[in-house]
Amino acid sequence: MIELEGVPELIDPVMVAAFEGWNDAGDAASGAVAHLDREWKGEVFAALDAEDYYDFQVNRPTVWLDNGVRKITWPTTRLSVVRIGGAKPRDLVLVRGIEPSMRWRSFCNEILGFAHELGVEMVVILGALLGDTPHTRPVPVSGVTSDADLARTMDLEETKYEGPTGIVGILQEACTHAGVPAVSLWAAVPHYVSQPPNPKATLALLNRLEDLIDIRIPLGELPEDARAWQLGVDQLAAEDSEVAEYVQTLEEARDTADLPEASGDAIAREFERYLRRRDPAAGPAPEPGDGSYLRDTSGGLPAPRSASRTSPGRKRSRRPPRPPTRTTPRRSPDRAGLPLHGAVPTRPSSVPRAPPGPGPQTPDGLKIRPRPRQSSPAGV
Questions:
Q1: Where does this protein have compositionally biased stretches of type Basic residues (predicted)?
Q2: How far apart are CA 188 and CA 130, in angstroms?
């Protein structure tokens, strides 16, 4: 039994989790949880034992200096709690860490143990995958669940995915078997510019989370960061005619696929959602906390949204061709941390359509990658 000290009784708590690694393209999912933790000044109340779940040759600890004293930070998963103020206060339990290297079932059982002790009503797991989506269009976000009843009541998709999975898929299934309502939200990141960070995808996940659990999230500088990111990619893509042509093809395919769902009813629902979130009568967005939520303290403008969502397995009326090939990388001056590359890296056939595995990633530019084969959220 897990005993929690210094954690008060929570109000309608929802657990929001994200894990760095395979299911975190562009660091969009982990970036969303980090944003929540930063804006609401979350306080860590528990951390999983790194020895139990991580291979330190894969996820290495880091050494740092604190007033001349050397300290070590071990890779692990931490849990923090934040209280959202306002007329209808509620609590979020934030789970942020790295996809474990081993003992996934024990890992999920430990997370569920915390959820049980805290009285968590629902678990929302954030993920991001690589997809055939142009950076110039709203980021598609799919909400999926393994619970048929939950899919009907919350307007979600019931997952039909089959194939390799990550910790997001395993944790969702563990929640379902334990009788805990669980939803995963997946943002599609353009596969040709997958380097982190991707503030536009992070913003899309937060907007979808707002709708799902009916809260208002202070966005801070994230909308401006998203606009700057898109502008930087626009400028770089415009300098290469092959890249620009490929992006245009993706835009045409996306627009054609979205047309049947861009009905008047869909547009009206989207507009009502926008008004509901920004309704002045609802008061301002909750202010960040004061950092003293636990008893024991010792220890903007929303991004535009598409009227449709990318549905796992949905057939598109037009398939974009493969990206242009080039053997010699071509660089342009660095803008927004994204020097342009025209080379086409080879994707191993054994890697499913999902973010690359954990490890250091540098924002080394706009890379045109081979078109992924699968169109459903990997790991769901």
A1: 312-321
A2: 6
Say if residues 28 and 202 touch (Cβ distance below 8 Å): yes
Give the lowest-confidence range in 154-163, 177-186, 191-200, 221-230: 154-163
Tens-digit pLDDT profile for residues 295-306: 433 333 333 333
Model pLDDT, residue 257? 79
User: How many of the other CB atoms lie within 10 Å of CB of 88?
Assistant: 11
Is residue 364 helix, strand or coil? Answer: coil
Closest CA to 155 of 264, 262, 270: 270
Query: Which residue type sits at 114?
Result: F
- How many other CB atoms are found less than 10 A from the CB of residue 77? 24
Residue 82 contacts by C-beta under 8 Å, 6 or more apart in sequence? 36, 37, 40, 41, 42, 43, 91, 92, 94, 289, 293
The answer, as to whether pTM is greater than 0.85, is no
Bridging pattern class, strands 122-131 and 182-190:
parallel
Instruction: Pick the more confident residue, 301 or 322.
Output: 322
Distance CA(256)–CA(269), nearest Å, equals 21
| 3-state class (DSSP) for residue 252 | helix
Question: Once rounded to an integer, what is the mean pLDDT over residues 7-17?
Answer: 91
Asked if 216 and 210 count as a contact pair (C-beta separation under 8 A), the reply is yes
The DSSP call for residue 5 is S
Percent of the chain with pLDDT over 70: 66
Cα separation values, 165 from 122, 173, 376, 377, Å? 21, 11, 12, 9
